[in-house]
Model the fold of this input.
Amino acid sequence: MKIAMIGSGYVGLVSGVCFADFGHQVACVDKDEGRIGALLRGEIPIFEPGLDALVEANLRSRRLSFTTDLAAAVAEAEVVFLAVGTPSRRGDGFADLSYIYAAARDVARAIKGFTVVVTKSTVPVGTGDEVERIIAEARPDAEFAVCSNPEFLREGAAISDFKLPDRIVVGTGDARAREVMSEVYRPLNLNQPPLYFVDRRSAELIKYAANSFLATKVAFINEMADLCEKVGADVQDVARGIGMDKRIGPKFLHPGPGFGGSCFPKDALALVKTAQDHDAPLHIVEAVVAANDRRKRAMAKRIVAACGGSVRGKTIGLLGLAFKLNTDDMRDAPSISIVTALQDAGAKVRAYDPKAMTQARPIMPDVTFCDDPYDCATGAEALAMVTEWDEFRALDLTRIKSLMAAPNLIDLRNIYRPADARKHGFSYSSIGRP
Ligand code: UDX
Ligand code: UDX
Done:
């Protein structure tokens, strides 16, 4: 099939490259010439394990192309995916749909023959109707159908999530579009791709409901961790104990510094806004958003407490800045709130992250960026583990302690066992464990 992917950001790039890898002919379009130029040279603008090799292989096989020429790509395509950004609108948290609508107008002008237009960006319920209206108004002669096909891939595991999805949700009431979408996803699974067809509005809502539900699980276990600390229980045992119940499931019950990233915070907020607008407030999701914001701010207080109540003039080391491991994404990362609060309290902050320092530099101007975890620990009165990178799991704790000004270890991801850390002479605190 011939596919045009409008928007070569995280979702567009990964989806486009994976479709090409499955044998489709894919044109990835972006209006950013610098980005397209870099991609054509094989330079990948994001860090995602395995993506560079996949881009290279599919460019070589000529199934994948990168272009700024939207009209040419759309005219050729049987399926056009809209994967442009939908950031939170400044002020009210509602999803900013201006990029989607602008892309829909551009696509409308270029459509040739029956074309399925698919929103892959996360868009509020009802957006498909508006995209349909825009295209019909701009091109009354065009033959097209608008579908919703939300993306559930996780950063850091995006390629395997794309290739082995739990389900593929497609929202459409159009029989021809259904056939085309079945063909698009057919190569994904030899026997039967896990395609789930629903109406368009339900598909749009499934994405927000899934992210908000997962965010709720994380927020729930984080509050449970706080309770565990007060009553002397171990949150890891509680999480395992409830997770063994198949109705609850073991995933997304790992306590930490609060959820971040490009999706959970933004999508939960946008869903709250949609629900308020429709007079069906989602009180639970509202509470999740508020609890997570509070939590991110509270993490710095733990570090201050570990330093005896004040960090003024003290050096604090942070290990990990990305919102989670295996990504260089800094969007809504808990590290941002932690750095701001520590600096406001008068601390000097040193930090190390294996991948995210380039992204972090412009948003953390007064932080000293280090070469490795040991460099980061040097002279620090406290070392906080903020992201659970693999390379932080087996540090030489004896060496770390010898480099630090005081042996305070604050493990916000429960990477180490309390007994091990204490054996090495650390004053150790973690999340929700005695
Ligand atoms: C519940 C817990 O599930 C159980 O683990 C605990 O020990 C006691 O309370 P039960 O009262 O049997 O058990 O509830 P359940 O069958 O899970 O359903 C509770 C209500 O929620 C029902 O009215 C059910 O219709 C509703 N429900 C359940 C939903 O609306 N959606 C669901 O997905 C599940
Ligand atoms: C998420 C969804 O999982 C994915 O389906 C959707 O398409 C995009 O949003 P992503 O943002 O890449 O993916 O990260 P995810 O792995 O879901 O983690 C989100 C946040 O929750 C991270 O900050 C992570 O550290 C945190 N988290 C997750 C926890 O604190 N504990 C957990 O148990 C799981």
Summary: Residues 151-155, 211, 214, 218, 252-254, 256, 259-261, 263-264, 323-324 surround uridine-5'-diphosphate-xylopyranose (ligand 2) (CB under 6 Å).
